[in-house]
Write a structure and sequence with these properties.
The chain has about 950 residues and is an alpha+beta fold. A hairpin with a 4-residue loop joins β5 and β6. A seven-stranded mixed beta sheet has the order 1-2-3-7-4-6-5, with helices on both faces. The chain has a six-stranded mixed beta sheet with strand order 20-21-19-22-18-23.
C-alpha cells in the first residue's frame, strides 16, 4: 500500500512508462508490453497496457480484499458475498440501468473472489471506455442497496455454497484448511463457513462497514489494457475516480503460529464417490525477492505433475489413481501447498498416500536435475505465454499478479525469479517446508477408509533407514570426464534354485532393462539418450555386475534415472514376460540355433561341472526359465542384492560428492549379507576321452574339449598356466602354436585357441571381459568350425599337439618369448577404463594383488622348469571331455569309435613332411569305446 507521501509525489509527477529499465532486464520480461503507471493522490493505482489487439479494451479492477481480510469471527465469506453485492447498483445507476449500459457496450463482465483479492473485469469495445469507467467509478464510490436486496442476495450465496457442496473436493479443501489453521483467516475458504453464510441475512449493517473498510482507492488498481492510448485513459480515470476518498488503517490479519503437525482429518461423504487423499504442507507466501515460494511451486509441479514419474506410475502404469494434482497457491501470507489424488479403490488409499509421502521425503534428500528444472522453467514460462493470445487474457493474468504490490513489474519480477532457480534452491525449499510439523493430511470417502490411514508416518520412515553398512569404495581417479562405476554382487547362476535355473540372469535383466518403480524402461532409455549414459548388467556363475557410465556433467541426473532400476525396481508383469521371453530366445536361438561355437563351449562347461552349481548355463535351462515367476525375481532381488554382498568401484574424474552420493544411494539396498556362498564346485575328470556329439543341422562341425583344473587366480601356478595357454592358443592371435598348426599350415578353419579361464562370448571379443570370477575353472581348447569330413582329423591333430606339449613342455626360447610378450600384453588387455576397474574388483573378490601386478610379479620369477612342471601337473591329452556339434552325428560317432583313418585333402601343394605327418595323425588311435561317445539331439541340450 502506498503511503500518503508517496501518493502525493506520484500525483504531481507525470505518468511514466513501467518499462524504464535496462535493456537486459526488458529482454528477460515475460510480458513484452510497454505499460504506463500512475498513482493518484488518493492512492488509486492506474496501469495502462496497449496490447496491440485492435478495437477491444479490458478493464480489470483488483481490490486487495478477499477472505483473508475477514478478521472478525462469524463474518467468513463476506468478501465473496460482497462481490455479489457490487452488482446491486447505485442511486445514479440502479441494477437494470447499469446492466443496460454494459449490454450496450457489447461487454463481457464478471468478477471473482479469492483469499487475497476480489477482481472485477469487463471487456468491451474501445469506444465505450469512458462510459464504462464512469459507471464503474460510481459503483465503487456510491454503492447503494436496500436491506431486502441484501437478504435476497445472501440466499443466492447460500445457493452457491449448496451448489459447491455437491463437489467432494470443495468439502475436502474446506475441512483441510479448517484443520490446518488455528489463527489465520486462511482457516476458512473463500465461500466461508456454512454457519456464517446462513447468518448473512442478519448482517446488513456489517455489509456497509465491510464496504467502507475495504473498498478504498489505496487498495485498488485500475488496469486498462487493449486498444488504448495511455494518457487519454489516465485522464479519464482521473476524471471519474480522483474524488474517491482514502480509508482508515485497518487491523492486521493475525499471523498463524508455527504448525505442530502432522494433522489428520477425514470427511465422511454421504453418497457414493471415489475416495480422495490430500496431503498439504504449510507453504511460504508469494514473493518476488525470496525464492522459497517459486522454488516450492516449481518442485511440486515437477514431482507431481503430468510428466512426473509418480504420475506415470500411479495414473498410467498402475492405474490406482485417475487424478493426481499439485497446487501451490500464490498468496499474500503463508498458505497451504496441496498434493491430491482421487483413488479408484479405497483399499489402495494407504498405498497412494505412502507413494505421495515417499516422493516428498525423497525431494528433501535428492536434488532435481538441471535438465528437469530447465524443462520446468521453460514449460512454466511458455505455457503462460501461449495463453496470452487476447487482450482479456493478458489483462486478467496481469490482475492476478498486480494485486500483491499494485505494480506492473510484479509478474516480470516473479518470472525472472523463477529463471534464477537452481536445484539447490528447490531442495532447500523442500527441506524447509516439506516437514512432518507442516504436514496436513485430509481424506474423503463414502465407505470407511482403511484404519492405517489415520496414522501418518514420519517422512523419514519413507527413506532408507540409517544403515551401518560401510561400502569400501574402490576409487580410480583419473582425468577422464567419463565416470564409470561397477557394483559387483556376490550372486550368480551358481545360486539359481534347483528347477529355477536362469533366475539370477533374469533378475539382473529386470534390474537393467525392466525400469524402476517410477519410470518404465522406455522412459529411462529416452531420458538417457541425450546424456549418452548407460546402465548395464553382466551375470556369470558367481557374480553379477551392474555398470553405469556417464559424463561427469550429468552425474546427478543420471543417478536419479539409472540407479532406481536397481534400488527400486519396477517389477512390472509386462517387462517380466518380455525379458523372460528374451532370455529363452537367447538360450534357444542365439546360443543353440545360431552359434555352434558358443554352443559347444557352453556344453563343455556344463558337462564337466554336471551335478554342481556350475552345471547349467548362466542363461538357465528351458524348463528352469519357464518355471520362474515374478515373485521369484522379487525374492532373489531382495536376498541377493543386499548391502553386504556388493563391492563398489568408480573411476574417472570422480569427486568426493559423487562417491558420497553413490554410497548414500546404495544404502537403500536391502540390509544383510546377501546369499549364502556356494561351495567350490568339483569338476568331473574323465578317464580317457569322453565325447558328446550334439546332433544339429549345421554346415560345419564345432569342437571344444578340456578338463577341470584347480588353478584360479589364487593359485601359485596361475601365471605358469596363463603363459602355457598363451603359447598354445592365445585368443585371436595368429602367432600362437595351435593357430599355426591347424589354420595357418593346413587351412582347416578360422582359428584355434586355448584357455584356462572361461571366456563366454569369445567369438565377439579380443579380450575377455572382467567380472567373470569363478571358484573353479577348466582348461579348454576351442577348434573353430571345420568341414564335416575333416572333423575327425581336426580332433586328432589338436590332441596330437596337446600331447606334444604335455610330454615335451616348452623350450627355453618359447618360454622367454611368450613371457616377454605377456609382460607387456597384460597392460594391453587391461587398458580400458572398464577393464581397469573390473579387474581391480575381481582382485578384491579373489583376494589377490591387482591383476597386472599379480601377473608381472608372477611371470618375472617364473622359470621354464616351473612351467613344464605345471603342464604335467594340471593338463592331460588323454583324459578329456569333448563336445562336437555336427549334422551327421551317427556317422561321426562311427568314425570315432572305429578309429578309422581320417584323411585330409588340400587344394594346394603341401610339403612332403606335412603330408607324412598327416598320415601319422590320421592313423592315431583314440581308443574310444561306444559307450564313451554319446549323441544328443540339439533340442535336448539345456532343456532341463
Amino acid at each position: 500500500m502506498a503511503s500518503s507521501a508517496l501518493a502525493q509525489t506520484a500525483a504531481t509527477a507525470p505518468a511514466r512508462p513501467a518499462s524504464a529499465k535496462s535493456a537486459a532486464a526488458a529482454k528477460a520480461d515475460l510480458l513484452p508490453f510497454k505499460a504506463t503507471e500512475k498513482t493518484l493522490a488518493n492512492g488509486l493505482k492506474i496501469i495502462v497496457v496497449p496490447t496491440g489487439f485492435p478495437n477491444i479494451v479490458s478493464l480489470q479492477i483488483p481490490v486487495q480484499t478477499g477472505s483473508r481480510n475477514e478478521v472478525e469471527p462469524g463474518k467468513s465469506g463476506f468478501a465473496h458475498f460482497f462481490e455479489h453485492m457490487m452488482f446491486r447498483g447505485t442511486k445514479a445507476y440502479p441494477p437494470e440501468q447499469y446492466q443496460e449500459i454494459i449490454t450496450k457496450a457489447g461487454a463481457r463482465q464478471n468478477a471473482y473472489t479469492s483469499d487475497d483479492l476480489t477482481n472485477y473485469h469487463t471487456t468491451f469495445a474501445k469506444d465505450d471506455l469512458e462510459t464504462v469507467l464512469k459507471v464503474e467509478a460510481d459503483r465503487f464510490q456510491h454503492l447503494d442497496y436496500p436491506e431486502d436486496a441484501f437478504k435476497t442476495e445472501s440466499r443466492a450465496v447460500l445457493g452457491e455454497y449448496n451448489k459447491n457442496s455437491a463437489n467432494p473436493v470443495s468439502k475436502l479443501f474446506e475441512v483441510m484448511r479448517d484443520s490446518a489453521y488455528t489463527t489465520h483467516t486462511y482457516k476458512h475458504t473463500t465461500m466461508g463457513f456454512i454457519k456464517d453464510i446462513e447468518d448473512m441475512p442478519n448482517q446488513y449493517a456489517y455489509s456497509k462497514l465491510f464496504f467502507d473498510r475495504w473498498y478504498r482507492p489505496e487498495r485498488t488498481t485500475i488496469i486498462i489494457a487493449g486498444d488504448v492510448e495511455p494518457q487519454q485513459a489516465i485522464a479519464l480515470v482521473e476524471k471519474y475516480w480522483s474524488k474517491w476518498q482514502r480509508g482508515k488503517q485497518q487491523a492486521a490479519v493475525a499471523a498463524e503460529p508455527a504448525p505442530h503437525g502432522p494433522v489428520y482429518s477425514h470427511v465422511a461423504w454421504p453418497t457414493p464417490t471415489l475416495p480422495w487423499v490430500a496431503v498439504g504442507f504449510h507453504a511460504p507466501a508469494f514473493s518476488v525477492q525470496n525464492k522459497d515460494q517459486a522454488a516450492l511451486a516449481t518442485l511440486l509441479s515437477l514431482s507431481f505433475g503430468r510428466t512426473s514419474p509418480l504420475y506415470q506410475r500411479l495414473v498410467q502404469n498402475e492405474q490406482k489413481v485417475d487424478q493426481l494434482f499439485d497446487m501451490t497457491p500464490e498468496r499474500v501470507d503463508p498458505t497451504l501447498a496441496v498434493l491430491g489424488a482421487r483413488v479408484k479403490n479405497i483399499d489402495d488409499a494407504v498405498y497412494v498416500r505412502d507413494a505421495i509421502l515417499k516422493t516428498v521425503a525423497q525431494l528433501r534428500t535428492t536434488p532435481v536435475s538441471e535438465k528437469d528444472l530447465a524443462d520446468a522453467k521453460s514449460a512454466e514460462k511458455y505455457g503462460l505465454i501461449r495463453s496470452l493470445d487476447n487482450t482479456e487474457q493478458i489483462a486478467g493474468t496481469l490482475a492476478s499478479f498486480v494485486h500483491f504490490d499494485r505494480s506492473y513489474a510484479t509478474i516480470n519480477q516473479y518470472y525472472r525469479l523463477i529463471d534464477s532457480l537452481t536445484p539447490a534452491d528447490l531442495q532447500a525449499a523442500a527441506q524447509k517446508y516439506l516437514t512432518d510439523e507442516r504436514m496436513v493430511v485430509t481424506t474423503l470417502s463414502h465407505a470407511a477408509m482403511p484404519a492405517a490411514i489415520a496414522d501418518t508416518p514420519a517422512l523419514a520412515s519413507y527413506l532408507p533407514a540409517a544403515s551401518n553398512a560401510k561400502f569400501d569404495v574402490l576409487v580410480q581417479k583419473s582425468a577422464l570426464p567419463q565416470i564409470r562405476y561397477k557394483l559387483l554382487f556376490a550372486a550368480g547362476s551358481a545360486q539359481d534354485p534347483q528347477g529355477k535355473e536362469g533366475l539370477a540372469a533374469l533378475t539382473a535383466a529386470m534390474m537393467a532393462s525392466g525400469g524402476s518403480s517410477e519410470r518404465k524402461i522406455d522412459e529411462i532409455n529416452q531420458a538417457l539418450f541425450p546424456l549418452a549414459g548407460s546402465f548395464s548388467q553382466q551375470t556369470d556363475k558367481e557374480m553379477t555386475t551392474f555398470t553405469g557410465s556417464i559424463h561427469k556433467d550429468s552425474w546427478n541426473q543420471f543417478s536419479q534415472i539409472a540407479l532406481p532400476q536397481l534400488l527400486s525396481p519396477g517389477f512390472r508383469e509386462d517387462d517380466f514376460r518380455r525379458l523372460k521371453d528374451a532370455q529363452k530366445n537367447a538360450l534357444l536361438l542365439d546360443l543353440k540355433d545360431n552359434n555352434e561355437e558358443e554352443f559347444a563351449k557352453e556344453r563343455l562347461q556344463t558337462n564337466i561341472y554336471a551335478g554342481t552349481p556350475y552345471g547349467h548355463p548362466v542363461l538357465g535351462t528351458l524348463a528352469g526359465i519357464e518355471a520362474i515367476t515374478l515373485d521369484d525375481v522379487k525374492q532373489f532381488w531382495k536376498s541377493a542384492y543386499a548391502q553386504g554382498a556388493v563391492k563398489v568401484g568408480i573411476s574417472g574424474d570422480v569427486s568426493d560428492a559423487m562417491t558420497a552420493s553413490l554410497t548414500q544411494a546404495l544404502a537403500q539396498l536391502p540390509a544383510g549379507p546377501g546369499l549364502n556362498p556356494t561351495a567350490k564346485p568339483v569338476g568331473r575328470k574323465p578317464q580317457g576321452l569322453e565325447v558328446e556329439i550334439i546332433e544339429k543341422n549345421t554346415r560345419a562341425t564345432a569342437i571344444s574339449f578340456g578338463l577341470p583344473i584347480e588353478v584360479t587366480r589364487t593359485h601359485a601356478d596361475f601365471p605358469a598356466l596363463w603363459l602355457v595357454k598363451t603359447w598354445l592358443g592365445e585368443h585371436r592371435a595368429s602367432n600362437s602354436y595351435l593357430y599355426q598348426r591347424i589354420r595357418e599350415i593346413r587351412g582347416m578353419n578360422y582359428g584355434d585357441y586355448a584357455y584356462i579361464e572361461a571366456f563366454p562370448r569369445g567369438m565377439y571379443q579380443f579380450f575377455p571381459s572382467p567380472n567373470l570370477g569363478r571358484k573353479a575353472q577348466l582348461f579348454e581348447i576351442w577348434i573353430r568350425p571345420v568341414a564335416p569330413e575333416n572333423a575327425h582329423f581336426a580332433l586328432r591333430v589338436a590332441l596330437t599337439e596337446l600331447n606334444k606339449l604335455v610330454e615335451n613342455g616348452l623350450t627355453q626360447e618359447q618360454f622367454e618369448t611368450t613371457r616377454g610378450y605377456l609382460m607387456k600384453n597384460v597392460f594391453v588387455m587391461t587398458s580400458t577404463q572398464d577393464q581397469q576397474l573390473g579387474y581391480a574388483l575381481d582382485s578384491q573378490w579373489y583376494g589377490t594383488p591387482e591383476f597386472t601386478k599379480l601377473m608381472r610379479d608372477g611371470l618375472s620369477t617364473l622359470t621354464v622348469a616351473d612351467v613344464n612342471r605345471a603342464i604335467k601337473q594340471h593338463l592331460s591329452a588323454q583324459n578329456l571331455s569333448v563336445v562336437m556339434v555336427a549334422k551327421d552325428a551317427a556317422g561321426l560317432k562311427d568314425k570315432l569309435v572305429s578309429d578309422a583313418f581320417s584323411p585330409i585333402k588340400y587344394d594346394g601343394n603341401k610339403p612332403q613332411s606335412l603330408l607324412d605327418e598327416d598320415k601319422v595323425i590320421g592313423a592315431m588311435k583314440l581308443n574310444l569305446k561306444p559307450e564313451a561317445v554319446k549323441v544328443t539331439p540339439a533340442a535336448q541340450a539345456f532343456a532341463r
